[in-house]
Amino acid sequence: MPRGYAFGRGDEATHPDSIRATLAEFVSTFIFVFAGEGSILALDEMYKDSTLGASSLMFIALAHALALFAAIAASLNVSGGHVNPAVTFGALVGGRISLIRAIYYWIAQLLGAIVACLLLRLTTDGTRPVGISVASGVGTLNGLAMEIVLTFGLMYTVYATAVDPKRGTLSTIAPLAIAFMVGANILVGGPFSGASMNPARSFGPALVGWRWKNHWIYWLGPFVGAAIAGIIYEFGVIQADAQPHHHTHNQPLGPEDY
After folding, report:
1. Does residue 82 form part of some domain?
2. Whole domain around residue 207: which residue ranges?
3. Which SUPFAM superfamilies does the UniProt entry name for this protein (predicted)?
4. pTM of the full structure
5. Per-residue pLDDT of the chain (258 residues; tens, 9 = 90+)
6. How far apart are CA 199 and CA 218, in angstroms?
7. Based on the structure, what is the number of domains in the chain?
């Protein structure tokens, strides 16, 4: 029996738990984007006349992984530690959050990314954010496919470690596992699609730096990848393993249930 979907309770829009969770998503996304985009700007500033290749890619992947680990750990028990509109969409598709909560999260995540990039531009004396882009010579469809695959892996990891009711003690390493997945995906997909996996991570720099080329890839790819992973894990793993007598209700879980 599949999970139910809900628009949200009547009081959810103003409930203190919703406000706290939304604030947590804003702050966590700010932390992640500030460090992630900041690592790229730092490399550009320190090594303007040199090509570091693999070393620079490793530096960027590590910065993103460390920042995401901290961001998720700081918000996991409050909002579920999404820090990513695509992850929120995957949870929505799986029936794990209400539509109202998802909309709140999306607004908070995008605002967090925008504020992070604005402060980066301010603190770096007007340096224009670089953002995420498809590498030269890589086709748009190739970039889209890469973002779908990378985000699928990310969302599947989120479900397995932070959402699955039978995750047990595995939940304690959820922030680390998710951060490792993002770092590994950047090492794989960074040279091709930029390995965003996160519409907020792409939108903040695109808006503040005004770089919109192929920006649609970083919305469609992550949303499709996250949705596929959410459906497969929710209905192919969790629901398939559930016993009929366990279904005492059919309401989406909130962040406190992750």
Report:
1. yes
2. 16-242
3. Aquaporin-like
4. 0.89
5. 345 566 656 666 778 888 999 999 999 999 999 999 999 999 877 766 445 567 889 999 999 999 999 999 999 999 999 999 999 999 999 999 999 999 999 999 999 999 999 999 999 999 999 999 999 999 999 999 999 999 999 999 999 999 998 888 878 899 999 999 999 999 999 999 999 999 999 999 999 999 999 999 999 999 999 999 999 999 998 887 765 544 434 444 444 454
6. 5
7. 1
Residue 6 lies in a domain: no
Based on C-alpha coordinates, what's the Rg of the chain? 18
Residue 140 lies in a domain: yes
* Nearest Cα residue to 188 out of 54, 43, 41, 68: 54
Residue 247 domain-assigned?
Answer: no
Q: Burial, 135: exposed, middle or buried (Cβ in 10 Å; 0-12, 13-18, 19+)?
A: middle
